Amino acid sequence: MRLRGWQAIIVVPVVVLTLVTAAPVMAQHSSSHAQSHARGNVGGIGFGPTTLVEDQREGAEPDVKVCGPDAAWSYSNCGLDNPYVSWPFGFSTTSSFISRSEDQGKTFKLVPNNLATGKPTACPGGGDTDLGVSPGATQAQDLLSFIDLQGLTNFSSGTSPDGGKTFTGNCVTSLAAPVDRQWFGFYKNQSTASTAAGLGSGPAAYLDYDVVAGATTAASCANNVGGNVFVVQKSTDAGLTYGAPVVADCNDGIAGNMQVNQTNGHVFAIHSAFKDAANPGATDVVTVNKSTDGGATWTKTVAFTPTVPSCSPDCTVGQDFAVLAIDKAGGLYAVWSQATVNMTSTITGPSHIYYAYSSNEGATWTAEQQVDAAATNAETGQPTDVDIFPWIAAGDPGKIDVVWYGTTRANNAAPYDSGNQMTDWFPYLTQSSNANGSGATFSTPVPVSQHPNHNGGICTMGIGCTTGGDRSLADFFQVDVNKAGGADVIFADTSNNSNTSASGNQSALVDEVRQISGPTLFGPTLSGTATTCAAVTATPCQTDQTGDARYEANGVVNGNTPKLDITGSSLNISPTDPLSLDVRMNIADLSALPSVADSSINGNNQYVDYLTSWNYHVPSHGQADYDSTGNIYICLPGGQSRHRSRHGLRRQYLRCARRDAGQVPRVSGPERHQLQRHHRDIGDASGDD
Length: 689
Description:
- The chain is an all-beta fold and 689 residues long.
- Among the domains are: 8-23 and 543-681, no CATH class; 306-524, no CATH class.
- 0% of the residues lie in helices and 38% in strands.
- Strands 3, 4, 31, 32, 33 and 34 form a six-stranded antiparallel beta sheet that branches. The chain has a five-stranded mixed beta sheet with strand order 36-39-40-1-45, with no helix packed on it. Strands 21, 22, 23, 24 and 25 form a five-stranded antiparallel beta sheet that branches.
- It is globular.
């Protein structure tokens, strides 16, 4: 039934309204300032609405995992097709977060073990995270593997056999120190892993990472002058405990991710390196190390090394990670961001995305090929020439998706360094169906988000950015393949904030978006569309699945509470006031107001919140007034409803009227211009759908 008497109206001067709901629905209000970019060509790749993963907990460099390994391929087991997301909150907080979706990416909530942060809280972290999932028949049977960096001192690991309801943690994972940037690789379904040692052909979790320069005592790395050491550890209990680290490569710039061939158990790990390890300058080499004996020994192959004249005098591939993907036939794809640099490693030319392919497990590689040659700025139509942070996913042989953050430098006099840009950035995606050889073709790159995710510089110097430069997006974002072969993209979004901190950082939120149309990595073509929401009526513009308003916190998962179950949502310009925003939520059952007598409601909580959130973008705005988010809370029973606005570091709470005999609550606030929204069912302090 509709929430009678609860029509929340926000007084805002609205230019363009984009409805971002839990289903692929959009609404636009005619205006000369309508969005200038299209998120997918007609008949081409298109994306659904951007979903805000978490409206309160900030972070960056998120990772997303939908599928896990089976006997044939690393991403064939997709379970119920629900993505899991993790992201760090920073060394100083010692916290990171894990969220999951229970409706195929339409909405997210912290995993049920969210005692404080949604991760194993017995161990510190907050530096870098990675996540793996081996899906089960139900979400309560999903096995999660989690790893978190403790301020360069060690890693905290955790495993959950029940989709994040409970975790077992290990606060001392690494046997080396200091350490940095860890990545998982999985062999076989981890839910069958055993704690028994020496399983040989049994399931294994691999962890690669950097031992920070100068810290290793390995005799084999005695000539390593200024670089890190690239090491790998192996686990036979799904990534909870590990054996001793094995040096995979002494010549190491930054550790990249791992892939495992599920048919033969061969392990591959990518990283950047130096052409001249004795005199390291820019990280200018892409290296892939290989193990055929379960990680005991490693060999090396070079996927890219700089040559003249394309790299004169040199190139960098350290913006930031080289990334590796494996297709269903075992083909390997390496991708990286490349720019020319001078002898002091200063970037002197455009940054573009390149890839190379190997058909023989890395023994040889094709020549590098540019991925983003057809990329144009989603706002200006100009070619993008500062493209960084690539990630890649593969599917059927030859089929790959590649994403990156891209912008166009402000003018011909501006430097090409990404940290010096004061322009809008978008996350872009392109696809190839014939990348397993030379002469690959790529689709026209499309922005995956409905608005720019960042304005200003992106510093790629890691923790060196703390002394200057904007590192609010951290170092990467990801694309993963889902059950249909479509793309799930997770990225950081600073449009809720402006550059006001002393370090130049902007607090970011985490967004997720799913492909709804166009060709996929598995062959079938998706045909979803974004439906226009013409008006707010009793019939919702979009619907939400029923039965998912559950309290999920503190290791508890309760049953559904119909009085808290949002089944539909609409948002549009008010037909009576063009300066007002009309928000309406449909609730499964409001025959009576919620109370502590209802199941799933904690008796210690005094309020139940029904939440609608949005963010907006004004194409003409710069950092001083760049975008914002807002939330409307409708509180039952008896309490004050709340409206929260976020802009920069300013937060404002405004009162709205209580529900009384048909009275319509009305709130006023500073929000304006182009809006996006999502909704969640709020069943308690943490029980949200």
